[in-house]
Amino acid sequence: MSRRKTPQKRTINPDPIYHSRLVSMLVNRILQSGKKTLAQQIFYQAMKKIEESTQQDPVEVLRQAVLNVTPLLEVKARRVGGSTYQVPLEVSSERGTTLALRWLIKSARTRPGNEMVSKLANEIIDASNQTGNAIRKREETHKMAEANKAFAHFRF
C-alpha cells in the first residue's frame, strides 16, 4: 500500500433526469463492460416501474431504500499478536452509502428471473419496505459486529 498522500475524492455529477448524485452513483454500480447507456436505460425503466407500483416519487423510494440498507457497524480483520480478530468499527456515511448501493445491486442480480429492470425495481421496493436480501445482508453485518463486541478495544 502506498505511503504517499491519499488521492482526492472525485465529485460525482448528478444525473440528467432526476438531478441526484445518488442516482448517478447507482447507475455507475449497475454499469458493466463500460455500457453506461444500457445501465441508464435499465435504471430509468426500473424507476418508472417503481412509480407505477408504489404511486410515490421513485427517488424518495430509492433514498429510503438506501437509508434502510446502510449499515452502522462493520467488522474489520485486525491482526494482534499472531491471531486475527474481527474488530467492530463504525461505518462512515460515505462508505455506508457505497456498501448499501453495492448490496442492492448484488441482491437484485441474484434474484430469480431474467429481466434486470424488474429485479432492480422489486429489490428497491423491498428495501424501502425493510425486507429483501439487501436488508438481510445489513442485519448479518450488524450481528457479526455485535458478536465481536468483546474485541472493540483493538480498534485502530
UniProtKB/TrEMBL annotation:
NCBIfam families: rpsG_bact (TIGR01029). CDD domains: uS7_Chloroplast. Keywords: Chloroplast, Plastid, Ribonucleoprotein, Ribosomal protein, RNA-binding, rRNA-binding. Belongs to the universal ribosomal protein uS7 family. Residues 3-149 form the Small ribosomal subunit protein uS7 domain. The gene is rps7. It comes from Cymbomonas tetramitiformis. One of its GO terms (molecular function) is rRNA binding. One of its GO terms (biological process) is translation. One of the primary rRNA binding proteins, it binds directly to 16S rRNA where it nucleates assembly of the head domain of the 30S subunit. This is Small ribosomal subunit protein uS7c. It is found in: Plastid, Chloroplast.
